[in-house]
Amino acid sequence: MDENELINEALDGDLTAFNSLVLHYQDLAFNVAFRIMGEHSAAGDATQEAFISVYQKLNQFRGGSFKAWLLRIVTNACYDELRRRKRQPVTPLMPELEDGETLEDPYWIADDNLDPEEQTEQEELQEAIQHCINELDVKFRTVLVLVDVEGMDYETASEVAGTPLGTVKSRLARARERVQQCLQGFWELLPDLFRLNDEDTA
Amino acid sequence: MTSKREWTLELNTLSAFLDGELKKSERQHLQTRLAQEPELRERLENLRKTKVLLGSLPHLDAPRNFTLTPEMVKVREKKQPWSSVLQLASAMAAVFLVALVGLELVLNTPHAYRANDAMPLMESASDVEEPAAEPLIIWGFPDSGGLGGAGGTDMKSGVVSESFSAEEPLVGMDDLSSDEAEETMVEMEAPAEGEPDDAVAEMETFAQEEDMEAEQDSPPLEADSDEEYSQPEAEDPEPGMRAAPATDEDSLILGLNLEESGETIARSEPGTGAAEPVTTARDPNPFRLAQIILAVIAVGGGVALWILRKK
């Protein structure tokens, strides 16, 4: 069904139509939330809050890109959740192993095609990249995630982030540079092809 | 050596170039520089690697469905009215509070205070016609013969006007010439002839209260009894003017039973000639009560909203 039709039906109170939109966008929304927040349970909470907000604010949608409008609500929900967690720090619940230890992140074991060593290296590299993203200020982080992780153009990123195009451009450049510097601390994890030149990072 | 500003501008340009977001002229200018400057090329290459690394992050599936249930929507909808009611109550209380404070400021001029103070006196005076079982008060100073007989012991009132305070300068007969004194006493003639209603009427205006103050220091009217509050030594300028007889009970001051009254009355020291201040319980200001209630609603509503939102 057409997206606009679903939106109109949802506006008439059809929750099923709205849930069709949720199913279509939930992966994207969760990914954005996860990359901004760096933690699964927090990202899940923010995503759920965002969809509830979207349903309640649907009458405020004035056309244009529904995806950009939805992601803006997702990023705002992330900011709210980050603020809330900053006030009330929580310890994420990790699934426990039989010996009582916890997995650092159960999502990284999803890929069964890699051997354990490769899998571990890949996990560590991804963790390193996420760590460097998390080191950024949340405003810089958002733009970097939208453009470099989710592959959006500047205009859409500007719409989602609610900032002018020029701000997106400068924030993105500085965010890339900082991540680049941060990744030098994980030199041994980077594939040879991606190892950066020393003189540039000095 | 490039400055920090140039370095930042260059970084922005290289970053935008990677994304194909440069204008044609800017792109051509940068391409020319890249061909000539190996350092710039290297910088661009490192940015490209970073971008590729970031893009290599896996796209995760949502850990669960985020579809909404009617309960989820209902729960949220149920929360809204509370929030709205609190907001409305808090805002309305604040508006009324401001209006009430403004109204009080307008009304509480010195004249208004006088009128407010006189009001209970007038109300109680209206009961004079009916003799009640319980003796009520009309206060006068012992030395000066208690209201100069204007109300006498028949006057029933539990309220004493502030205009009787000893701190206010009293216009006494001592300060007046004998003619003036006579004139003053003539004004008091009607109540002295034993008409309590006239005495009540006399108290209806502030000016009349002033007259009564003058009367306190005037030569006292003769009381019919020998009670301690009968008129003291001053001569009666008008023999016909007599205060109504005081009660025989020692515990009464011109008909006031101290034990029965809920008020505190400070007696003047006999012979000092100076009237002591009289303290009476006053009705609570209704404005103040309303203001306190409104302030509590406004502040309480705001705090409750703040707590709800934090949760």
Describe the protein in words:
The complex is a heterodimer of chains A (202) and B (311). Chain A has helices at 3-11, 15-37, 40-56, 66-87, 116-134, 138-149, 154-161, 165-183, 198-201. Chain A is mostly helical. The N and C termini of chain A lie far apart (54 Å). In chain A, 34% of the residues are buried. Residues 93-110 of chain A have low confidence and may be disordered. Chain B is mainly alpha-helical and 311 residues long. Helices cover 51% and strands 1% of the residues of chain B. Chain B contains 10 helices and 2 strands. Chain B has a two-stranded antiparallel sheet with strand order 1-2. In chain B, a hairpin with a 2-residue loop joins strand 1 (252-253) and strand 2 (256-257). In chain B, helix 1 packs across helix 3, helix 2 packs across helix 3 (38-55) and helix 4 packs antiparallel against helix 10. The longest helix of chain B has 38 residues, at 70-107. Chain B is elongated, with a radius of gyration of 43 Å. Chain A binds chain B through residues 15, 18-19, 22-23, 26-27, 29-31, 34-35, 40, 44, 47-48, 51-52, 55-56, 107, 111, 126, 129-130, 133, 144, 147-149, 151, 153-154, 169-170, 172-174, 176-177, 179-180, 183, 190, 193-194, 196-197, 199-201, and chain B through 8, 11-12, 14-16, 19, 21, 39, 42-43, 45-47, 49-70, 72-73, 76.
Condensed summary:
Chain A is mainly alpha-helical and 202 residues long. Chain A has helices spanning 3-11, 15-37, 40-56, 66-87, 116-134, 138-149, 154-161, 165-183, 198-201.
